[in-house]
Design goal:
single chain, mainly beta, eight-stranded parallel sheet, 22 strands, 0% helix, globular
Length: 174
């Protein structure tokens, strides 16, 4: 747990995180450089870090990923993550880009909610979500899930005022 460190500027790690990891309330934290991190087997929560502008998570597998209420966060990049138990990206008002281009499966829920500046959501390889997909109240103009074949719950795409196009051509099971 990395919590309430008023002057922490950067966070980096090469460890494999086996339990719940929490990064919250670090007032000056600006960047999370986890390029060499080997994996997360439980959950990773990044919340209420007002100056955090970037989260780079190049790990191959994730537990549950929660990124919430980080006022300055502009990008989330996890180009090598292929699987997650669940993803919730919510209430990051400056978030413009989410790059999960290698993500193939989310075992439970996939939520992208209330990110007022989110224009790019890259999930090109996502084939299956075990439960629900909810994309709500973002600035995206296009939602493309070309590889998505199945979800075990519902698909909600709502309140995205700039949305012009939704494409899920291979979705055959909801």
């Amino acid at each position: 747990e990395v919590t309430d460190n008023a002057h922490l500027l950067t966070l980096s790690s090469e460890a494999e995180l086996l339990g719940k990891t929490t990064v919250t309330g670090n007032g000056q934290l600006a960047f999370m450089d986890l390029d060499n991190m080997r994996g997360i087997s439980s959950s990773f929560l990044v919340e209420d870090n007002p100056n955090l502008f970037a989260v780079d998570l190049p790990v191959l597998e994730e537990g549950r990923l929660y990124i919430r209420r980080n006022e300055s966060l502009s990008r989330i990049v996890a180009p090598s993550m292929v699987e997650s138990y669940g993803i919730s990206i919510q209430g990051n008002p400056s978030l413009a880009n989410v790059d999960l281009q290698s993500l193939e499966e989310v075992i439970e829920d996939f939520y992208v909610l209330e990110n007022a500046e989110l224009q790019s959501l890259e999930v090109d390889s996502l084939t299956e979500v075990g439960n629900r997909i909810k994309v709500d109240d973002n600035a995206i103009t296009e939602l493309s899930m070309f590889s998505l074949e199945a979800t075990g719950g519902y698909v909600y795409v709502l309140n995205n005022d700039n949305l012009q196009s939704v494409s899920m051509p291979n979705l055959f099971l909801i």
